[in-house]
Amino acid sequence: MRKRDTVRRIICILIYGAVFIAVLVFLNRLLCIKDEHGIRQASELYVQPEDSIDVAFMGSSHVHYDVNTAYLWEQFGIAGYDYSAAEQPLWITYHYLQELCKTQSPSLIVLDMFAPSAFKDDYQYNYLTDNLNGMRFSVNKLRMLSVSCEPDRLWEFWPSISTYHMRYRELTEEDWKPFGRTRYDRMAYKGFFPHYDIDPHEAPQGDRRSADGLTAKSREYLMKIIYYAKEKDIDLFLIVSPYNPDWEDVEVYRQTRDIAMFNGIRFEDYNDLAADIGIDYARDFNDDSHLNYDGSIRFSDYLGRNICDYYDIPDRRGDEYWESWDRHAELVREEAEEKCP
Amino acid sequence: MSLTVGSLVYATCICVLFYIVHPRLRLGLLVVSSLAYIFYLDRYAGVALLITSLLAWAFGMLTDRASDHEQYRLSRVLMIIGVALSTAAIILMKYVTPVLQGLDSDCVLARFVIPLGFSYYIFQVISYLVDVQSGRVHADASLIRVIFYLSWFPKFLSGPIERKADMDKRIAQIETVSLIDGARWVSVVHYLLIGCLYKIVMADRIGVYVDKIFELKSGLGSIWLFIGMILYTFQIYCDFAGYSYAAIGLSRAFGIDLSENFKTPYLSQNITEFWRRWHITLSNWLKDYIYIPLGGNRKGQVRKIINTIIVFAVCGMWHGESKNFLVWGLLHGLYSTIDSIAAGKGVKWFRTGVPGRIITFLCVAAAWVFFRAESAMSGIRYFVYMFTSGLRLRTFSTDYLVLFGERSPEIIVIIVSVAVLLIMEIYAYRTDRSVPGIWIDRPYVIRYGVVAIGVLIILIFGLYGAGYDNQRMIYMQF
User: How much is the average pLDDT of A116-141?
Assistant: First the structure.
């Protein structure tokens, strides 16, 4: 009798447990933040075909605004992925790189250095949620949390549900869309987040400002990224994508150039090459700091040529294993045709 | 203990250790973990607690020794010195320091800020010394046990205010507490669950809108101000009862039963019953250590009224130096006096049944306005606005948008949660149990479902994470 009761209890616990988990998973998917400032870039990485990404573009929002992975695919056959997040500090990039290498074996990492020049705090909370929420739970994520967030603020950001459970107040149609997306559909996402506004700027007049250089923490993690890339036999290409020069910090870029030279790494500040790239400051910016779709094409064209010139990246076009890039390019093209002014 | 993820994780780790270490080491572990928790919250509070514990232990020992040697006068003098020191400390920190801070902030005394949990454990010190002197309890020769009595971390911040004799019984059982005790763990889960639901889902959510209503009181109509008063009545109950349930549940995980602090107080039929059900451990303390020593109801009706007023004035003043607390206390003194006279004359119509419940609830709610207000004048102004601003039905919906925002389901969450709370409270009242208690003896099929749904509600509708300060508890400031 007692044994039968115990069995019943266990069955009851299992049923309730299963229903509880199912409801929690559903609510989690419904309520989670679905923006493209880092979360989608990080979460869709997990559905990419294994070892398919040849070039990973990493860094802050400049990457997913400016580096047009669809264009790079169509013009150069580069299987690239914008694995970036808003204002991403280098200590998070370091852990993103480790996460990337769990399922991918990229030949090249292109790392944008804007964030360490613009943001100097050792803990940066502005876009921390966007940097954290897309990554799956793992020891790597715990390590990333421990360097990104002071201990007494940990529970504000982890578990991720603590950052979005209150979104039941602001649900929109967009929140239901992921339920209709299959793994196959998600595969066509490559991190690029095109924007179509035009925000005219004056062309820079060569008055680039200099402030403090790399912070100790940024320098430490830049070196960790360099060593990790060397260990994994991945080429590293440090860049600064073009942006409105108000924010510039030439000292950071000078130090980065020195570090890059010392370690035999290529560094390119594309602000210096804006004229060669053909950046039109009156038409190519979406806002103060980011290129729009047209700007991204101009910049990606130049960047793609640089990558092909300096690195040995295979052209994957036509290979069935990389067909998701074809779908990606088509989706971006369709969206651009619809939204381009 | 504050209801944060960090605190709960800490408590869980300590609980695991509790069942791993040798039973003889358990008390030591609980003392060390309690002190570590308090020092982590505030080093100053930790030092204050240690000094107080040492003094309580020493005065207890000296008082007891004097009693043993039949030096009753000396033992009484020692007890009075100990109680006077405790009272002086609380008066200094609650009354003198704020005044001095206004006059001369460089003055040494002005630098004393009341440490966390101070007014709760100082009441326990007073009860301990009085009980030792009266022979109700023997002085504890173990300083460790005295520290444990005052510092036990689930109850440290806001009570319940325990008696030493009760805690001694629980300490005696610590070594025999078994991990395998299904009934106890069921109770732990339900107390914690109801505590978190009350505090994180209800009190903190209601508090957001109460703050807005009290802030915008001059521009709102009577209906909103009345709603604000009622909402605060629920907020303070859910906040404090939620904390108390969680503290009881957590403490029970270690086999240490704390006293119930709330028993469905808002269903009371009269104010006397309300005080038997609201903050029970404080009410009992005030009764045993102030009301009865003053003569209680043994010296005639006039003295009884005076004693009642004194007790409630002390109760109000205990909450802080601001006059609004005194007004709140005196209002309750007035209510109790009227109730006592009515009871003496056999009047029943406003003391029993539904009318009694409604009148008691509204009287208590009205008094809470003073408790919530920044000052006594601010509380009076709230009522002036409430009775003079008119219904303002034309601006009702605009005010709703100002308070709750557009398309906000928060009002629905509040209405549904208050409705569920009332159903649980009514059932608990009728069955004479605590709210967590009504679930404990349900069949497990129901209990497991309640736990699963409760956890989901906390996860989704709880106010936690970035932007919310779950460490904030109304009664923590006292």
Answer: 94
As a whole number of angstroms, the distance between CA B102 and CA A199 comes to: 54
Which pLDDT band, with edges at 50, 70 and 90, does A33 fall under? very high
Q: How far B458 CA lies from chain A's nearest CA (Å)?
A: 10
**CB distance from A12 to chain B under 8 Å?**
yes
pLDDT-derived band at A39, boundaries 50, 70, 90: very high
- Are A162 and B465 inside 8 Å of each other by CB? yes
Asked whether A140 and A98 are in contact (CB, 8 A), the reply is: yes
Query: What string of H, E and C letters represents the secondary structure of A122-173?
Result: CCCCCCHHHHHCCCCCCHHHHHHHHHHCCHHHHHHHCCCHHHHHHHHHCCCH
Between B467 and A186, residue with greater pLDDT? A186
Q: Are B187 and B249 in contact (CB under 8 A)?
A: yes
List, for chain B, all residue ranges whose pLDDT scores fall below the cut of 70: 101-112, 407, 467-478
For A18, the closest chain B residue by CA position comes to B452
Tell me which amino acid residue B460 is. Answer: I
> Cα(A317)–Cα(A269) distance, rounded to whole angstroms?
29
CA B230 to chain centre: 19
Q: How much is the pLDDT for B465?
A: 82
Asked whether residue A16 carries a pLDDT value surpassing 90, the answer given is yes
Pair of tokens at residue A30: 């419904």
Under a CB-based contact definition with an 8 Å cutoff, are residues B121 and B3 in contact?
no
How far away is chain B from the Cα of A107, in angstroms, using its nearest Cα? 38
* pLDDT tens profile A161-182: 989 998 998 899 989 988 989 9
pTM of the predicted model as reported, rounded to 2 decimal places: 0.87
Contact B462, B201 (CB under 8 A): yes
Tokens 């949660």 label which residue?
Answer: B417
Q: Tell me which residue of B286, B294, B295 sits closest to B317, measured CA to CA.
A: B286
Check: CATH 1.10.645.10 for A35-162+187-339? no
Q: Contacts of residue A20 in chain B, CB cutoff 8 Å?
A: 452, 455-456
Cα distance from A2 to chain B (closest Cα, Å)?
A: 14
8 Å CB contact between B410 and B404:
yes
SS3 label, residue A57: strand
Stated length of chain B:
478
Q: Calculate what percentage of chain A has a pLDDT beyond 90.
A: 79
Which residue from B28, B38, B418 is spatially nearest to B227, judged by alpha carbons? Answer: B418
> What residues 148-167 of chain A have any CB closer than 8 A to a CB of chain B?
152, 154-157, 161-163, 165-166
Q: Give, for A237, the enclosing helix (H) or strand (E).
A: strand A235-240
Percentages (nearest 5) of helix, strand, coil residues in chain B: 75, 0, 25
Across the A:B interface, residue pairs with CB atoms under 8 Å apart total 55
* Domain assignments of chain B as residue spans, ordered by start: 5-176, 184-269+352-477
For B52-68, the pLDDT digits (tens) are 999 999 999 999 999 88
Question: A245 pLDDT exceeds 80?
Answer: no
CA-atom Rg of chain B in angstroms: 23
